[in-house]
């Protein structure tokens, strides 16, 4: 008997039903499956299926588009020296601690000025995402975004940056966000939130939590999630040292070495290892603070083993020819990439 159930608008499937969906997506992907074993693993496909509520054609379309995007942009080949200048202000950085559930933490400070182009900012965000994903603990598939609104005002608004950030997160790294904490946003932010909320899928905006330092439950929220001795004072923690660019550069270069070793190895990400529909169903649930109606979370793709060589371009073209995206499979609510 089928175990399909509706929880709001979301399906819950048995491991056998999930595996059948995985197999169907593989068939829709076609010959490219053999060229992208990590991206087309059970772990990766489960994540794309969750992002499209188990609709196989839409999931396959999203996965195909992501394969092409990774071939064209080579996100796992971006290195610290390529983007270091953007990090000098500490506007976005990966924290040197995890939350209590083993999730990588990305800190964002939208109030810090940024004069770089949207494309350049997105490239830096992708670098941070790739690095954060590689650092996730085994069987932990998601990260936390800590967003500090100190210094934010209406002049900080960039609808295009916000829209592109949402697109990168939802279309290229679906199901990687576990929780986004908006810490102490000013009252005026409410009108901006109403404006940008349509850019977010329901699954994404349900993972957003507004936290105010004067609220009665704020301290408990942060203590439940973080080691307060390591958490920055700007988020109510005890760590008072500011962003250290020199120390951060050293950490990121070490991360680059780790990424290079990972790409060469062709091994699955720690969070993806031995994940199937059956093992994911039987593993411990993610019981951390989260506003979404989550059941089984899926995992992100392993970074592709791309090499910089003359042969690579021919190989890319061959793969792109095999990855045919069916426009009729698109979700009507799917956001279009801004021009």
What can be said about this structure in brief?
By secondary structure, the chain is of the alpha/beta class. The protein has helices at 15-29, 32-35, 42-51, 56-73, 80-87, 118-134, 159-172, 189-196, 202-205, 218-225, 245-265, 277-282, 310-322; strands at 5-7, 10-12, 92-98, 104-108, 143-148, 177-183, 208-211. The N and C termini lie far apart (47 Å).
The number of helical elements comes to: 13
CATH overall fold name of the largest domain: Phosphatidylinositol Transfer Protein Sec14p
Structural class designation:
alpha/beta
Into which percentage range does the β-strand content fall?
5-15%
Q: Which features would summarize this protein structure in a list?
A:
339 residues; Phosphatidylinositol Transfer Protein Sec14p; CRAL-TRIO domain-containing protein; phosphatidylinositol transfer activity; CRAL-TRIO_dom; PI_Transfer_CRAL-TRIO
Descriptive overview:
- The structure is a single chain.
- The protein is α/β, with parallel strands linked by helices and 339 residues long.
- It folds into two domains: 5-74 and 270-329, no CATH class; 78-254, CRAL-TRIO lipid binding domain (Phosphatidylinositol Transfer Protein Sec14p, 3-Layer(aba) Sandwich).
- Helices cover 43% and strands 10% of the residues.
- The protein is built from 13 helices and seven strands.
- The chain has helices spanning 15-29, 32-35, 42-51, 56-73, 80-87, 118-134, 159-172, 189-196, 202-205, 218-225, 245-265, 277-282, 310-322, and strands spanning 5-7, 10-12, 92-98, 104-108, 143-148, 177-183, 208-211.
- The strands form two sheets. Strands 3-4-5-6-7 form a five-stranded mixed beta sheet, with helices on one face. The protein has a two-stranded antiparallel ribbon with strand order 1-2.
- Strand 5 (143-148), helix 7 (159-172) and strand 6 form a beta-alpha-beta unit.
- Helix 1 crosses helix 4 (56-73).
- The longest helix is centred in the last third of the chain and has 21 residues, at 245-265.
- The chain is globular, with a radius of gyration of 20 Å.
- The N and C termini lie far apart (47 Å).
- The model is unreliable at 282-315 and 330-339 (pLDDT under 50).
């Amino acid at each position: 008997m089928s175990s399909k159930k509706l929880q709001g608008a979301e399906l819950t499937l048995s491991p056998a039903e999930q595996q059948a969906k995985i197999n169907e997506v593989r068939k829709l992907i076609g010959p490219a499956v053999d060229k992208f074993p990590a991206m087309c693993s059970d772990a990766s496909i489960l994540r794309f299926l969750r992002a499209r509520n188990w609709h196989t054609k839409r999931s396959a379309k999203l996965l195909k588009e992501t394969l092409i995007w990774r071939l064209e942009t080579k996100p796992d080949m971006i290195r610290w020296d390529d983007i270091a200048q953007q990090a000098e202000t500490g506007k976005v950085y990966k924290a040197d601690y995890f939350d209590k559930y083993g999730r990588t933490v990305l800190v964002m400070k939208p109030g810090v000025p940024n004069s770089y182009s949207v494309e350049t900012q997105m490239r830096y965000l992708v670098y941070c995402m790739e690095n954060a994903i590689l650092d996730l603990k085994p069987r932990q598939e998601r990260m936390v975004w800590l967003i500090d609104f100190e210094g934010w005002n209406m002049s900080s608004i960039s609808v295009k940056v916000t829209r592109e950030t949402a697109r990168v997160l939802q279309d290229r790294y679906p199901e990687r966000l576990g929780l986004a904490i908006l810490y102490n946003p000013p009252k005026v932010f409410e009108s901006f939130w109403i404006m940008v909320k349509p850019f977010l899928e329901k699954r994404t905006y349900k993972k957003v939590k507004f936290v105010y330092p004067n609220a009665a439950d704020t301290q408990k929220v942060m203590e439940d999630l973080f080691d307060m001795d390591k958490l920055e004072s700007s988020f109510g923690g005890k760590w008072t040292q500011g962003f250290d660019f020199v120390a951060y550069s050293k950490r990121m270069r070490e991360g680059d070495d780790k990424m290079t070793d990972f790409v060469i190895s062709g091994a699955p990400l720690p969070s993806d290892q031995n994940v199937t529909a059956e093992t994911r169903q039987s593993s411990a649930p993610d019981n951390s603070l989260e506003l979404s109606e989550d059941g089984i979370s899926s995992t992100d793709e392993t970074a592709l083993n791309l090499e910089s060589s003359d042969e690579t371009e021919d190989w890319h073209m061959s793969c792109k020819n095999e990855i045919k995206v069916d426009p009729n499979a698109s979700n009507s609510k799917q956001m279009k990439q801004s021009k």
